[in-house]
Structures are given as structure tokens and as C-alpha cells.
């Protein structure tokens, strides 16, 4: 509909050398508080998705990312707004992830993602990550 406001959000599946993914538990006082999600945030006006991802990951985790690869996206109506959630696969990064106040970080194997409480839009993204991790394992 003509007055839908798009809400572009970027998020990162940051992977370690063992194929584990970094997830973050949202502060309880925020929207979706207490749920586990992929680190990231809103794309600002005039910003590319990749620049927004690098900025958000630096702000939230104090990590520098390199060469994010698009992995999957989710599209979800949220009242007057419409969430476009873009998930990138990030295998190249530097720094030691540190959580912002109120957030908790956890490394988890993709197979553990279905057991985590996540926002609804994250479910298909987690499934895509799981599917991709199986493929990678099969082909080395
Ligand atoms: N970062 C992130 N946001 C997600 C995910 N899944 C999901 O539904 N969202 C939603 O996307 C939006 C992103 O908001 P955010 O609060 O992380 O963005 P931000 O860092 O720019 O926050 P701010 O507005 O407080 O500055 C929220 O509505 C959040 O619930 C996810 O996996 N990662």
C-alpha cells in the first residue's frame, strides 16, 4: 500500500573458525526484549546496507568486519511499517566481540538456533544459515 514505510535492517551471521554463529540477546527494555537475534540494526538514510552493517557491528560488538556476503532476507509487515531484514554471512572479522550494556553474547552452532527464542522474522534466516552450514560441511 502506498503509505507503507520500509524499515531496512541489516544483521550479521558472524562465524568463528568452527562454524559457530554469534547471537545477541536483546536488552529487556527494548522491542523484542530478551529475544536472541543476529547483531545489527537499522540502515540510516543515505547509507548503504554494507556500510550500515559495518557501523552497527563496530558499535555493538567493537568488531571490524570484512567482505560480508548476502545470505538471506526476511520481509514482515509491522503495522504501518514493513521490516526488510537482510542477513549477511561474515567469516572475515577482527576484534574480540564485547556486548553492549544490557546485551548478552553467545556463540552457538547453527543446529542450536531453533532452540533459541528469536523474533519471528529471524526464523527463516536461521533456517537459511543452517542449510548453508550443512552444505559447507558436506563440501569442506
Ligand atoms: N539487529 C537485529 N534486529 C532485528 C532482528 N530481527 C528483528 O526482527 N529485528 C528488528 O529490527 C529492528 C532493528 O532495531 P535495532 O534496535 O536493533 O536497531 P538500532 O540498533 O538501529 O537501534 P536504535 O533504533 O535503538 O538505534 C528492531 O525492530 C528489531 O526487533 C535481528 O536478527 N537483528
TrEMBL record:
- What domain of life? Bacteria
Specify the enzyme's EC class, one word.
Answer: hydrolase
List the EC numbers from the record.
Answer: 3.6.1.55
Known CDD domains for this protein?
NUDIX_MutT_NudA_like
Q: Which residues form the Nudix hydrolase domain?
A: 5-131
Q: Which InterPro entries match?
A: MutT-like, Nudix_hydrolase, NUDIX_hydrolase-like_dom_sf, NUDIX_hydrolase_dom
Catalyzes what? 8-oxo-dGTP + H2O = 8-oxo-dGMP + diphosphate + H(+); 8-oxo-GTP + H2O = 8-oxo-GMP + diphosphate + H(+)
Positions of transmembrane segments: none
Pfam families given for it? NUDIX
Task: State any single GO MF term.
Answer: 8-oxo-7,8-dihydroguanosine triphosphate pyrophosphatase activity
Establish whether keyword Plastid is in the entry.
Answer: no
Per UniProt, which keywords does this protein have? DNA damage, DNA repair, DNA replication, Hydrolase, Magnesium, Metal-binding, Mutator protein
Task: Tell me which Gene Ontology terms the entry assigns under biological process.
Answer: DNA repair; DNA replication
Needs which cofactor?
A: Mg(2+)
What family is this?
Belongs to the Nudix hydrolase family.
Protein name as it appears in the record: 8-oxo-dGTP diphosphatase
Amino acid at each position: 500500500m502506498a503509505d507503507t514505510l520500509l524499515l531496512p535492517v541489516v544483521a550479521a551471521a558472524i562465524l568463528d573458525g568452527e562454524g559457530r554463529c554469534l547471537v545477541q540477546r536483546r536488552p529487556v527494555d527494548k522491542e523484542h526484549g530478551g529475544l536472541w537475534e543476529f547483531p545489527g540494526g537499522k540502515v540510516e538514510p543515505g547509507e548503504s546496507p554494507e556500510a550500515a552493517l559495518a557501523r552497527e557491528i563496530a558499535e555493538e560488538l567493537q568488531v571490524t568486519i570484512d567482505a560480508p556476503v548476502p545470505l538471506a532476507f526476511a520481509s514482515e509487515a509491522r503495522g504501518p511499517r514493513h521490516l526488510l531484514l537482510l542477513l549477511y554471512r561474515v567469516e572475515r572479522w577482527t576484534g574480540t566481540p564485547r556486548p553492549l550494556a544490557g546485551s548478552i553474547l553467545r556463540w552457538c552452532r547453527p543446529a542450536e538456533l531453533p532452540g533459541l527464542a528469536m523474533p519471528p522474522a529471524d526464523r527463516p534466516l536461521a533456517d537459511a544459515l543452517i542449510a548453508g552450514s550443512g552444505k559447507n560441511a558436506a563440501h569442506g
